[in-house]
Design a protein that fits this description.
The strands form two sheets. A three-stranded antiparallel beta sheet has the order 1-2-3. It has a three-stranded antiparallel beta sheet with strand order 4-5-6, with no helix packed on it. It has one helix and six strands, in the order E-E-E-H-E-E-E. The protein is mainly beta and 81 residues long. It is elongated. The chain starts with 5 loop residues before the first strand and ends in a 6-residue tail after the last strand. The structure holds zinc ion (ZN). The site of zinc ion (ZN) has 7 residues, from helix 1.
């Protein structure tokens, strides 16, 4: 079986229900194909570029490029770095 839509073994105490978990967001589905589609719907990071620094060592804002061609600015407001 491929990595995508992995089966999750039920614990001994629970009834033998099969769930499939998206490895990206951890949502669980009864149908394997839905978990595969969920994983495929998450964008992947292609590259990141620093945009702005403060006095801290880490950049305050970075521009992230995704595999759908879009770019977004991420801000390190809560990272403390
Ligand atoms: Zn997902």
């Amino acid at each position: 079986m491929s990595k995508r839509g992995r089966k999750i073994k039920p614990s001994a105490a629970s009834p033998p229900l099969i769930f499939y978990r998206c490895p990206k967001c951890k949502r669980e589905f009864n149908v394997r194909q839905e978990a595969v589609q969920c994983e495929a719907g998450h964008l992947r990071v292609v590259s990141a570029r620093e945009v702005q620094y403060t006095v801290k060592p880490y950049p305050f804002t970075v521009e992230v490029a995704f595999n759908n061609g879009e770019k977004r600015i991420y801000r390190a407001e809560d990272l403390g770095g």
